[in-house]
Design a protein that fits this description.
Elements (H helix, E strand, L loop, with lengths): L33 H8 L6 H4 L9 H18 L11 H13 L4 H13 L7 E3 L2 H7 L5 E6 L2 E7 L2 H5 L7 E5 L2 E2 H8 L9 H9 L12 E6 L5 E6 L13 E6 L3 E6 L6 H8 L1 H6 L2 E5 L8 H8 L7 E2 L3 E5 L2 H5 L5 E3 L5 E2 L11 E5 L6 H11 L4 E4 L10 E4 L5 E4 L2 E3 L16 E2 L4 H6 L3 H18 L2
Parallel strand pairs: 9-10, 10-15, 15-16, 16-20
Antiparallel strand pairs: 1-18, 2-3, 3-4, 4-5, 4-6, 6-7, 8-9, 11-14, 12-13, 12-19, 17-18
Helix pairs in contact: 3-4, 4-5, 12-14
Amino acid sequence: MPLIRVILVSFLLVTQFPVYGQTSQTTGAPQPSRKELLERDGIVWGSADVWGSPFQENISEDLKLAGLARFWMEAKINFPRFAEVSELDWDKTYLEFMPRVRATKSTYEYYRELQKMCALLKDGHSDVFLPRELAESMNTAPPLRLDLIENRVFVTFVGSKSLADAGVTAGLEVLKIDGVPVREYADKNRRPYTASNSPQHTELKVFAYGLLAGPRDRPVKIEFRRKDGSVFEKQIARAPYKDVAAYPVFEFRKLDGNLAYMAINTFGSDDVQKELVNHLAEIRASDGLVIDVRENDGGSGVMAYNIIAYLTGKNFSTPPWKSREYVATLRAWGTAGGWYEPKPTDWEAKLPETYLKPVVMLIGPRSLSATDVFAETFSRLKRGKTVGEPTGGSTGDPIAFALPGGGSARVSTSTEVGAGGAGIIGKGVLPDVLVPRTARDLLAGKDAALETAVNELKKMIAEKGNH
């Protein structure tokens, strides 16, 4: 459970990699020369001139093999969880993918093979990202949010008014995609290319993220089932949509009984902390608070800890983590590799703005990365109860790097101390009160987890008043 210091991004532009000897665009300071970097670090890890080859419809075989080698090497050196996939022989996998990469007929096919290889790591923070040109042309999805509930796939959010006006609404069940039963379609088009640390987050990635993605200019045909059981088929354009509604990063409202509710839907926007500060007086005036992070798939760990700091009257330590450590000479002497384990960071409480009244946190499988750590810290501090479903169970401080043809990848670099024991990676934070989502509740417009959270909050307030 590392301290994630940066916002995770879906892909990395080649221009973000340094070119040696140039001036930094952010600080104006000259960048170290290649010699200076080698003297300081012993190795140069990236070169825009080499790896930043531009996009082509079909890059050369040499570049494909070079990219395969780089991905294999970055994982071999940096990935911290090979023990959790001990059946995977990474060197053998590298050799097995060589002919598969050679056989690809396009850059798109090549990147799909790299995604298959990456999925074998079973890690939610290790990914291969398509070049921008391919992401835009081959991996576009209509603005619909899907969720797997009781082994059925439902539309849970419609981000376009034009789609809603055309009869595509939340609560519709997806039965078939392009004439193929939805589970069969997902097993063929999503599962081989995606994986994560926990079963709940793997299923989320398979069914909720990108299930409807495909060529931008090719509509997707979906068979839906309505609440009344009637079935209809609709052809939906993947793009363009000019009326897409952005999912709110922060929501606040008052609940009955002088309770407050705030949904933090990302740790990837500075607006979250600004909104929290704007509503802090109302929150502090309430008798109890519900914090909802069920839609929050992570971002900045610093932001997550800053918000926890408002909820405790004393300083707290961040969870311990470790990363692989390699010393070449020790290997030559036959000594095994080791681990770098820094001391946990001490975080300061936000005195005198601290909120010490009862709190309940809503969590679920979308609660990932920095949100995993957020929920774990909340539980470890015994600050209140958690309600809902287990969190995603994946963190990792990934390192990002360019690949030939304009794409990129990232590989996890850190893991929990004592991984495989009582940690959250691969399991998630288990809620104090389990409230699984059900199709009946969705179709009835009922948020059972929120109702349970409010009831638990009222109990906590009553118990506090009796002492």
